[in-house]
């Protein structure tokens, strides 16, 4: 049922239709789903696709999209990272206490947070690859350690506040004549998306990530240092969680629940993008599309007036449906 | 590097040929933890070996223990169930909603919850086996669906269970609480099922290698579905126990208890392999008791709740790292 060969004497319009169909099938399906959802939203609310509201929508997507772009490295390498939600919360709470509303603290605070995220990723990676603890458990442990440590340190509730020049990344943007405000968050998202896409799809390291997840034994025998590649994937995920935390802190402010549930949403976004848990398949672009789709579905359900709780239920059905479709495609392509 | 650890651990690992490792090392660890806890508390001037204390630890183990037994069954089969937390909530709420404090409706309430458990288990199992979705994503999806429906229908404590039903949570036969007897009965039943029935042997085979099991004539899909039904049923028992303690069910009782990740952690601390094919219910029971003893010591020393979370994370990862070290020779060589 893959591609039915057209009969020899087909009329011209029909042939071009089949070519369009084939072109359409080459596009990862998640982009088509995303387009369909956006069309639906625009039908209910035409202003949505005007520049300003659409950019605001992208800004809202940015934290999850950045998380998904980092998580996809770990998933392709054949592991899980359940610690990202706790890491996002940790970033927000730690930043608020250290920043303490003082703009002078921001320049050293962000590198410090990034270093912390890299360290968390490194520990996740080393515990998984050197101590041979399954990443599910290793990052679950990290989740508990992070959420315990952060609130132990801050005394149970977030204290302090974020300086304005720290919050600007998630809140403000550059004014562009005729277009309105282009949020920094969208610029950061585009930069990170392109950077990670290049890293995964156009570098030696990227190929090694696929190899490490697809068949670790074969990768190891052909000279890939699987443990190092997997550890690097965890570091990338940790760094992306820090960026997501900075954006989210700027956008929503300081709460103790900043990152709750983000680990599952990030994994869901990656799976929506066609990645397969177990490793070897996925891409940064599709993961980003997965995150945008998830967020746009929330927007759509909101527009349709569905309660928050029912949105969860629909999200669950969508995740199952997407995974079922990905599994179906995988089987058909052998 | 890996062959050097081969000979010392070989005799131990032969303890239970064909059906995974023995639970002896976990009980050994439990003995150590128990002794250290006893010593610490006595040195601190407290009393550890009191009937009250032991009862307290035992009852606290029941809620997690019941569902951890079910989680062990699905893990052995190479699957996983993240939906148990909301299964617990669904049970607690529907039991108290159906019973409405009327002793005559007790049987009806129990029947309804058991039917729901079978239904959810069937859905989980069928989604995983028929649609070929990774268990992590499938049960995350069903969990979201359950949470959405439950939160849309109920927002607070709903109905109540009759006083007679609370016997399950509060009565004791001599010094032994009824709930502890229930847990022991479930553990014994699960042990018998895993070690003495055809289903049990098939389950270990499917978890070890689904393809080999299938080629040897095992109906692998049926085994996985059955495992998921059993797992959901243990979550129902946890829900019934909790509602008998609380008198009324609310949608958050399951997720607040963290039964999804905690049950997996307990099983893994008890020596069950996340990859499937290896594990024992006795080991899981020891894992649950280890966590309960540690909790008891924390309470005795009035340890800060956040420090508790942190240490729990370290213990879970540490325990798994220890087993991984022991089983190193089984791991793939990179």
TrEMBL record, chain A:
According to its UniProt record, where is this protein located? Cell membrane
Supply one GO molecular-function term: transmembrane transporter activity
| InterPro entries for the chain | ABC_transp_permease
Recite the UniProt keywords alphabetically.
Answer: Cell inner membrane, Cell membrane, Membrane, Transmembrane, Transmembrane helix, Transport
Instruction: State which residue ranges cross the membrane.
Output: 23-43, 107-127, 134-153, 182-200, 232-254, 286-307
| Membrane topology type | Multi-pass membrane protein
- Record GO cellular component, one term: plasma membrane
Query: Per the annotation, which location comes first and is thus the protein's main one?
Result: membrane
Q: What protein does this entry describe? A: Autoinducer 2 import system permease protein LsrD
